[in-house]
Amino acid sequence: MKKYNVSIFVPHEGCPNNCSFCNQKSISGKTTLPSEKDVVSACEIAMKTAPSNQGEIAFFGGSFTAIEREYMLRLLKSAYPFVKEGFFKGIRISTRPDCIDDEICELLRSYGVTSVELGCQSMDDEVLKANLRGHTSRDVEKAVEILRKYGFETGLQMMTGLYKSSFEKDIETAEKIIALKPDTVRIYPTIVLENTLLEENFRSGEYKVMSLQETVELCAKLLLMFEENDINVIRTGLHSGGNVEEGYVAGAYHPAFKELCESEIYLGKILEAISPIPPCEVEISVPAGAVSQATGQKKKNKLFLEEKGYKVKFTEDKSLKKYNVKCCVRK
Fold first, then answer.
1. For residue 79, how far is the Cα from the chain centroid?
2. Chain-wide mean pLDDT for the chain?
């Protein structure tokens, strides 16, 4: 059965401060808070359209464990019966690292929460301070320790290209995240949105954004790092839709961002595999379902190889693992 989320956005609720990059209205397209009836309705619709007990009820958009306690409990109590009856496998929430402790973990577990994602964004304290995150890298480490103790599936969210960060610092953040061994990771390139401190810094010239290509190259490297360490990357780039395009000012936003990154990975792997072969007709085998990524958006990779003198044909090989390729001369 395919996994899916019933996503319920709780926009900008619970956040004790306003991070430099944050405009929850633009990110989620939501401005009103969900009610208990909204939660029940979303779950009932999902049960009819995607009947699978592998789904999760996901509360995203704010810092769930920092919202007003009575409201948080009302949301959990509305969702929990659907988990208890076996219609969904659990509840997923996202929150801040400094809003996790033993008491909150006991509470979450009692209401069917099985997965907790932490917005760590960076593991560099200078970067965290510059972007007004209000927590430290040590807070992330402590939160992961507590979540592990209570048996939660743990996810970490990181951002690339933040104010005061760099290519090297983002790689170091990924290395520190890998050392924590989370179950899942999300990678979000920094986007400058309207009505944020980051927009002010961008307009003044204090903050310079990474280009789309630079960000693709960085995130391609990050994807490989996480893949090589058996950490599942469940999101790369902001989702299209909502009000992201409307509130966009600058930054590496693309509706098919992950595909761009995976195409970059495959091009690098192909060039490495093809290097001993002089220009000729070549068959390039890629994992099942990866032909479009290997070919590249608008056949970018295929055209690049043809410019180098190779006439290429892409085929699928089910024996190949993710991001692996084989090249051989066509007879």
1. 24
2. 92
